[in-house]
Design goal:
carbohydrate metabolism; isomerase; TIM Barrel; alpha/beta; 42% helix; globular; Putative N-acetylmannosamine-6-phosphate 2-epimerase; 10 helices
Amino acid sequence: MTLDVLQRLRGGLITSCQAYPGEPMRHPETMAQVAESAVRGGAVGIRAQGIADISLIHERVPVPQIGLWKVGSEGVFITPTLAHAVVVANAGAEIVAVDGTRRPRPDGLTLADTVRGFREQSDALLMADIGSVADGLAAAEAGVDCLSTTLCGYTDERPKADGPDLEVLAELAATVDLPVFAEGRIHTPAQAAACRDAGAYAVVVGTAITHPATITGWFAASISR
């Protein structure tokens, strides 16, 4: 996989098309349709979860896809092992997002071990989902291709702010020689623009675009006072 994939994402919006377990939209066909609509609206890439979703979206949309596999919901659960990463790549993801924190991984490998093993089995790119500046620096040293602020506020290193963690984003963008993607709690176009101003290579938005239950809740709460 060439780094041209990253160039196609540069400066653009990536739409995260994921539904939580138990939701009516939790179906590969639905997520593929959401992805197709997002591309029509201008998304330059898609982020998706689950092998069936990744595979179908790969067939349906012409833009690069960031794929991941959530195993559980706590600790290291975003594409937590080398084996999971390889399966995600084989399903059609051009970029595989893995947990890029410094926490112990379920298979006992370090992130550097995972990167080396992955390179031997796939030519897809690796994105490290990180939760702090220290995570980002360690992931860059481990040899990943890009970083994302996905886990900022979801580990014990950073507070969970109402919006994106612009502080971590700006520091990493100014420090590492890798693309740094903004993701996490980006709920408005103004917040997305702020991420770009802080140095984001590209911006990933999920809930505010693809999660009707949450969006409806925002509006319902605003008028029930």
